[in-house]
Amino acid sequence: MLNVWDWLVVALYFVIIGVVAYLASRKQDTTEDYFLGGRNIGWFAIGASLFASNVGSEHIVGLAGQGATSGMAMAHWELHAWVLLMLGWVFVPFYYRSGVFTMPEFLERRFNGTARWILSLVSLAAYVFTKVSVTVYAGALVFQTLLPDTFGSPENAFWIGALATVVLTGVYTVFGGLRAVLYTDACQAVILLIGSVFITWFGLRELEGGWSGLREFVMTDVGKYALWRPLSDPDFPWLGVLVASPIIGIWYWCTDQYIVQRTLAAKNLQVARRGTIWGAFLKVWPVMIFLVPGMIGGALHKQGAIAIPLKAGVINGDQVFPSLVTSLLPCGLRGLVVAGLLAALMSSLSSLFNSSASLFTVDVYERIKPRAGQRELVLVGRIATCVIVGLGILWIPIMPLISQGGLYQYLQSVQGYLAPAITAVFLLGLFWPRINAAGAVWGLSFGFIAGMFKLAAQALFGAGKWEHPAWLAAIGDFNWLYATGVLFVLSVVVVVVASLLTAPPERARIEGLTYATIDRAAVRASISRWDVINTVLVLLVILGVYLYFSFWTL
Description:
- It contains 25 helices and two strands.
- It is mainly alpha-helical.
- It has a two-stranded antiparallel sheet with strand order 1-2.
- Helix 6 runs parallel beside helix 12 (about 240-255), helix 9 packs across helix 18 and helix 14 runs parallel beside helix 25.
């Protein structure tokens, strides 16, 4: 339960965010101001926003739950910092120099308008039905646990928490645009890191034996908590992880509007790259401040130091983080961690709202009404943000029905079916000039339809569900990690075959949009020695974390 000191900390957080949002929201007259912050943002704000946008309430709640129930299995996704470096070194030079606002717009430059329409509509649907709703649901779940009686009942706390954070975030996103999102994200990243570090520190202090006690707990069931699982593991076989995690990572970090939009707001290409390097460094830490506390929670529960609610006889993963907050932290610090949760929730939501508005305004409305003025487009962007907010709220009641396996695993599995086609089209489009519009359209269409077919089969058919016909049950039960790899290979084949069966693209159309046609001298001129040194240092940190947790149970 929160006391008066906790509420004062939370109130101070809202005051700080409100002031920052107000100062950043002035002068939003053009689409470049509203959607890209005037293309005048520094590397620190970009990197902090990349981190804060990625780490939402579903990260904090979901990763703590995964840590308690499946150990380090999800750490592979959190160590995608190396993929974030790919964004800065491999992808951003094309995006930034093409001057686009959105990723679908880039696909139109490289291929055609049909590819742009497909990616725009699928991205908008995915934002509403996965990211917005999952983020809000996870945050509301924590409010339900931390403030069960504050608003009369746990159900009231759930809905008031969900609605209040969505509305408040929507207000400053609607009026402030991307500049307000970026600068509030920079503040929220600091609060998020501080609050999560306290959870880890207090948990280790409470755990008998500290870090050694945690290792002993993990070694009691190495198969359950290890970073690498055998091929026989039904959920996270090591080969499936190696296949699927890069495909999902490249889609999310290098091609998704939600993330890439931050780099497009940079002052120049060098600043954009440095922002990704800074963001990659921050991205390493969720393993220590989200996953590890989850395992600490599991160990404390086993020792009887805290009581985590059960679900079907085992720990309810989505209740691990709230239980740690209520059981371990003193007053004041509880408020700081709740403020950190609010920071995660609001930063992710604000980024989602602004990215969704950008996609709708630039890729849908402006194409339907090409003569629309700048003020009209900004107004449409604000209205689109309000609509996305409303749709996300309407989807919340469905979330309890589809998050039975844990929020974070649900989110990753759905993304595993959306990612393959997009990853295939972007990679082939950049590295092979022969890939044409027909290949992109066919590949995107096939990949999305096949991915949604797998998702539907997984929801309806298989063991414990409809088991006939047998072939649909087999598809439903097929491991989602391997399914991601299969979808990627099939998408690549479709893109390549369709491209080779049709005429190659004209040289003028792909100028500057593939590695064979880009101005490499201009790209090299944006690279400094410190960019290379800092990139190597971040890679060494990632490698160190991988090596330590690969062998820490020996």
